[in-house]
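Hey team,

Filing this mostly as a record. A colleague (T.K.) asked me to run one chain through the structure pipeline before their review meeting, and I want the input and output archived in the tracker in case anyone asks later how it was produced. No errors, nothing strange. Just documentation.

Input sequence:
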Amino acid sequence: MCDKYCDARDPALSPGDRLATSASSGTRRFELHFDDGDDMGWAAVTGSAAGDQVWLDRSFDGGRTWASGSRLGNTTTPSGYSGWRTLMYNVDDWNNRGVGLLRACGQPVGGGITCTGWARTTWNAGDRRTAAATALMGFYNQGTGLFDTTGWWNSAKALTAVIDNIRVTGMGSYSYVIANTYDRNVGAQGGNFTNDYLDDTAWWGMAWVAAFDLTGDARYLTTARADADHMAAYWDGTCGGGVWWNTSRTAKNAITNALYIELNAALHNRIGGDTTYLARARDGWAWYSASGMINSQNLVNDGLDLSTCRNDGKPVYTYNQGVPLAALTELYRATGDSGLLSRAQAMANASTTSTSLNSNGILHDPGDAPGGGGPDGPSFKGAYVRGLAQLNAALSNHPYTTYLQRQANSAYANDRNTADQYGLMWAGPLDSPDAARQQSALDLMNAA
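Output structure:
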């Protein structure tokens, strides 16, 4: 494989040598070294004996598989040497958009295999924001246009996080993900990213708003409009208004209606002369704010009990606190009504100080535990910090900057592996990374 240089290059030619990580087996220390400038790495062993093996593994799917990249440069320590190393191999496959990781592995004579953690060069990972984005792209499947290890709506959130990262960092290396995802999925399910779940439709609609903002390509805005129109067809008078969670009309919940307000307000802000989307957003907020889903603590429960049309008393999930902040910020941009920002700030003050949502100052969802969260929960906190950051940017004194930075610092220190992959618990301990967990962490790094 060839990028700037081809695989199997002599490390002596490297202009730089960074020891990324290591692992020990008895007296043997297996090391992963990087030449960051050339995006290459090599494995080395110290304290070794004749016959000890050392090699590299390379993965292009976030460290989940490495069959075609196994035992690269496998070499044996010669007699009379106490250390040895492989040749250099590329981390990434630039020509094929392969986002890679390496690890060093070795096997002492008569012993078992020992490997370091997965890691990569600083190419497209020069700070914690771009490193988190690159780690998320390790889960991206170019064939499906979605993110492996997570679901349909979570992939919309992951795409949005990548787009936001391009905007906040200026690193456009992964811009190709936008058109690839669109082209491969625009005809899926109901078409134009609509489906039976109206919140899923809205997450995709907001992704295409972000894509339009970045690229100016009108087809993305057209699709976002189709998504909003699909949702509007499921507004009715049950419980006084609001859109249904699904086309089967089984629930009216907070997340779907907050997204409905945000998407319609966002469309108004991008379509000259619009009145339709603004009217929907206004009606959405009037109903939402009077529905009772916002409880007496200014926190949002999950939805309504259809038998009573009152607050269902279910948990106050983080995404239900964050999306209304984004929605009110967009609606403020549309109307200039400063009262909307005041209401959003009261809700943000409640969620950032809530002891049920923050433990020792670090955000968590009710019931969070290592290995938990199910298929949806790992995406929730990302939606929260993204909404909080949008409100924070709209307020002149930026009151939530310290809070956001505290979350990011904690996750970076306590919930991250050598590949810059993150887990569910931003206070730690690290559990098994996946694309949903990584999306939330990227939202956090973008926000902070």
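Quick notes for T.K.: The two ends are 37 Å apart (CA to CA). The chain has a mean pLDDT of 98.
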